[in-house]
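User: Here's a structure from my thesis project, written as structure tokens. My advisor, Dr. K., wants to see whether a designed sequence matches the one we expressed. Can you design one independently, without my sequence as a hint?
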């Protein structure tokens, strides 16, 4: 297991590690109502597709345990959480599971909803271990790997997806070290992946996002592992903005590019990545990175939080069930 965890369920309350403050400060938010959970998701205090799904599950459990809760109030909680972030599929998958516990009747058991939220959490932890095992088998001795965004314990219920593979590979003495992209504009790589690697004592080298071509050209990495927010039936994958560029460069340089994600990230309704709704976030996420820009009037900003990597650039997709290789054709 990992010493790092983004979420703790304690006495009917959800403790959320505020990832906006890392690596500078370790501070926990206590969520006693669904609104607090929803805002924590919207404002990226908790982020990463699997962790968002887990937090949402607990958010519904909190609503169910509230005084004077009713079938309607729990349904309203589910609807509130549904509109927090549009791209990551794990959120919708978890809310469906929680909603299914209401089973259409007017009675519900708050205990059952807590049990379901805990099950979602535990299953994700187990899936991380399986993905770590399958992914590490692909790594040859002494490889250096590249990753993007944060896909570690902070983003999941366990050791992580892509970073979980890297961690497992490092423990098996196969991975020499990891290069982490900064991942602008929010800096999940610089702030979170680097922090996690330091906690886990995995040798990490930070690079700016625009250094990937130079890194690959210099043959400093032998493999890329990234996570996913939603995977469609043809294998197209949405992940943090910038991932597609990394995949295309890896293709160009002949470097294997692996996506690591649990089954809860797969959207059986969507045939291809063109159908994925991409979240656009506030301009100030970009503007505040440059001193003085926020005060400069009239600066237009486009800030998509994710992009779609076409399946043709993906060497394999690793899930808790095994390693999928092209041509991809996931079930409806
Ligand atoms: O905006 P974020 O930080 O929630 O985006 C996270 C990512 O894109 C991750 O790569 C993805 O959710 C996989 S996390 C295991």
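Assistant: Designed independently from the structure alone:
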């Amino acid at each position: 297991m990992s010493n790092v965890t983004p979420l703790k369920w304690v006495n009917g309350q959800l403790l959320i590690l505020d990832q906006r403050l890392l690596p500078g400060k370790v501070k926990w938010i206590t969520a006693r109502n669904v609104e607090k959970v929803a805002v924590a998701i919207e404002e990226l205090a908790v982020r990463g597709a699997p962790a968002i799904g887990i937090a949402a599950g607990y958010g519904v459990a909190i609503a169910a345990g509230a005084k004077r809760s009713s079938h309607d109030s729990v349904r309203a909680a589910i609807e509130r959480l549904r509109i927090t972030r549009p791209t990551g599929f794990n959120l919708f998958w978890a809310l469906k599971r929680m909603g299914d516990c209401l089973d259409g009747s007017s009675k519900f058991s708050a205990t059952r909803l807590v049990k379901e939220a805990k099950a979602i959490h535990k299953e994700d932890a187990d899936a991380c271990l399986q993905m770590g095992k399958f992914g590490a088998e692909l790594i040859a001795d002494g490889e250096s790997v590249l990753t993007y965004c944060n896909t570690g314990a902070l983003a999941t219920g366990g050791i992580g997806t892509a970073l979980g593979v890297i961690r497992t590979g490092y423990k098996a003495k196969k991975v020499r070290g990891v290069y982490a992209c900064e991942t602008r504009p929010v800096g999940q790589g610089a702030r979170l992946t680097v922090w996690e690697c330091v906690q886990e004592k995995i040798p990490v080298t930070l690079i700016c996002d625009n250094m990937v071509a130079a890194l690959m050209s210099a043959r400093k990495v032998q493999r890329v592992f990234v996570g996913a927010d939603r995977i469609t039936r043809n294998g197209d994958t949405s992940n943090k903005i910038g991932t597609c560029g990394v995949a295309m460069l890896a293709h160009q340089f002949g470097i294997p590019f692996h996506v690591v994600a649990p089954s809860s990230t797969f959207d059986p309704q969507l045939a291809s990545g063109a159908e994925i709704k991409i979240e656009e976030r506030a301009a100030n996420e970009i503007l505040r990175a440059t001193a003085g820009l926020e005060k400069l009037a009239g600066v237009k900003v486009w800030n998509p939080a994710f992009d779609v990597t076409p399946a043709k650039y993906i060497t394999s997709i690793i899930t808790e069930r095994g390693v999928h290789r092209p041509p991809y054709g996931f079930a409806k």
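When you compare it with your expressed construct, this may help: Residues 205 and 229 are 24 Å apart (CA to CA).
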